Automatic annotation (TrEMBL):
Pfam families in UniProt: PALP
GO BP term (any one): D-serine biosynthetic process
UniProt lineage: Eukaryota, Metazoa, Ecdysozoa, Nematoda, Chromadorea
Domain of life: Eukaryota
Organism: Caenorhabditis nigoni
Annotated protein name in UniProt: Serine racemase
PANTHER family with a match to the protein in the record: SERINE / THREONINE RACEMASE FAMILY MEMBER, SERINE RACEMASE
Keywords recorded for this protein, A-Z: Lyase, Magnesium, Pyridoxal phosphate
Enzyme Commission no: 4.3.1.17, 4.3.1.18, 5.1.1.18
């Protein structure tokens, strides 16, 4: 993502990919509304192709790579982006390599391989991921795909529920998805607030308000999709512009509780990273928020994971 990204570019990406991805449903639960004390809608991206919203941006990038006669595509990912890009590359007929941190869930690694991706392991730090990916991209001559431009989801949300919501809550990791959503909402519906929900160790507000990065490179959290501690440098100014005052930090036990509630009340098998966004509503909803929409970003649950 660049700071020059436009609404028109995101509309073009949506048109480019719409025939191959799902227009995912919105769900609600009266029991959850009662517990939260407000109306809560869930945008079910865990039901998207490959089990996460990442299919949107990955497919757009794969199509563009194919049009540019790329030899193949490459990315670094702890799971969902890698699976999405492997699927997208298969769809357009390109080979795919994914650089994966050693601590990635095995089920997500196996998912990448099932879509015929070549998997290269690296150390579980952003610097190792980026350097290994850059080395492999140069060696193979592949087109590098950043996990960004997933903004097509915003058009769907506004069409499905734009008149029913006053806020959007989403999980934030590297910032690509968050920046896409914040940018589009800020330009199309500035009356809707975008809340970035994070594991408390990340302390994104300190970066956006004071310019101070998190001291760690990797977060110790059950939400494996957002273990990257730092947001991308191109995402940071967008998040600073639109979300400086809307960062929500949650505890690990709050993520677990939110996951249990979704699993038991809606019967939807979301992953902990998706539950992170709901934990922000469940435990930290501002009083003025009355009609929240939570983006359930993925459903690729580690098969070895069991709720305690």
């Amino acid at each position: 993502m660049t700071t020059e990204i436009s609404v028109e570019e995101m509309e073009a990406a949506r048109n480019r990919t719409s025939s191959l991805i799902h227009n995912t449903p919105i769900m609600k639960s009266e029991k959850i509304d009662d517990k939260v004390g407000a109306k809560v809608l869930f945008k079910c991206e865990h039901l998207q192709k490959t089990g996460s919203f990442k299919a949107r941006g990955a497919l757009n990038s794969a199509i563009l790579a194919k049009e540019q006669n790329a030899k193949g595509v490459i990315a670094h990912s702890s799971g969902n982006h890698g699976q999405a890009l492997a699927w997208a590359a298969q769809k357009v007929g390109l080979p795919c390599t994914i650089v994966v941190p050693k601590n990635a869930p095995n089920s997500k690694v196996e998912g990448m391989k099932e879509y015929n991706a070549d998997v290269v392991f690296c150390e579980p730090t952003m610097s190792s991921r980026e350097s290994t990916c850059a080395e492999m991209a140069e060696k193979l001559g592949y087109y590098y795909v950043d996990p960004h431009n997933c903004g097509s989801i915003v058009f769907e949300v506004l069409e499905q529920a734009g008149d029913e919501i006053d806020s959007i809550f989403l999980s934030v990791g590297g910032g690509g998805f968050a920046a896409s959503v914040a940018f589009l909402i800020g330009n199309l519906r500035p009356d809707i607030e975008v809340y970035l929900v994070e594991p408390e160790e990340k302390n994104l507000a300190n970066l956006l308000e004071n310019g101070i990065q998190c001291a760690s490179e990797t977060l110790n959290t059950i939400a494996d999709g957002v273990r990257v501690a730092h947001v991308g440098s191109l995402c940071e100014p967008i998040l600073k512009k639109y979300c400086t005052r809307t960062v929500v930090s949650v505890k690990e036990e709050e993520i677990r509780d939110a996951l249990k509630l979704i699993w038991t009340r809606t019967k939807q098998r979301i992953e902990p990273t998706a539950a992170l966004a709901f934990a922000g509503v469940l435990y930290h909803k501002p009083d003025h928020v009355k009609k929240a929409l939570v983006i359930l970003c993925g459903g690729n649950v580690d098969t070895d994971y069991v709720i305690n």
